[in-house]
Amino acid sequence: QASTPAARPGRHWPSRVRPRLPCAGGGAAAMAPKKAPAEERPETPAVEDEPPPPPPPTEDEVTELETGLQLPLRGVDVGEIWALDGDFTAQTKVLEAMLGLAEKHPVAPRRQAVCEFYLYNLSQAKALCLSTRQGAVFHAIMDQILNSMRCDDASARAQPKDLPCGPEQCFQAFQQLLLQHSVASPPDRLDIFKVSEARMLADFAMSTLFKHFLLYQFCLSCPQEVRPMVP
């Protein structure tokens, strides 16, 4: 019989090979460097969107032209007054509120004369089929001429020669303003009016304001004394 080889001392044959399990907390994963915790960044407050800029004013909303002419009434204001055509009392109240005539002319007769002058000019502008913007520019020109006629320190017995501005000077200023806004050469000149329209407005001013120039100037410049009528 063949003899069975004897096992070497100090060595044995396992019945099965057991898988090696990593030790708890050991192994390659345990040896890897730990990542530092991510820093918490403060939350950035949400920036509110700025409101969009307001749209530029339309032609009927501007209060000053490129020529430097100030418009006491805008085109939309003229349209509001024209909408009350036929109601003189309502037009008077609206116009006095828009222009602050009660503060500018505390004396009632003077305020009434100025208000009627403005309304008469606007009525003529509408009769000539001008636009509301043209009506506002015509009002501004006539208002500037009317203010140049005024002399606050005049006495009740002042003569026309004593007043600083006469009819010729005022008419030249009126012609210059009307021409400045009847020729297309911006920004110094604007074609607000056609040549035919400017001619009709000049004829109207000649037959109203400049025909009664001294009367308007006296009403604006000289103090008035109101006396009650004795029956």
Automatic annotation (TrEMBL):
Residues 1-62 are annotated as: Disordered. Residues 9-19 have a biased composition (Basic residues). It holds the Pfam family CLAMP. InterPro entries: CLAMP (IPR032727). This is Uncharacterized protein.
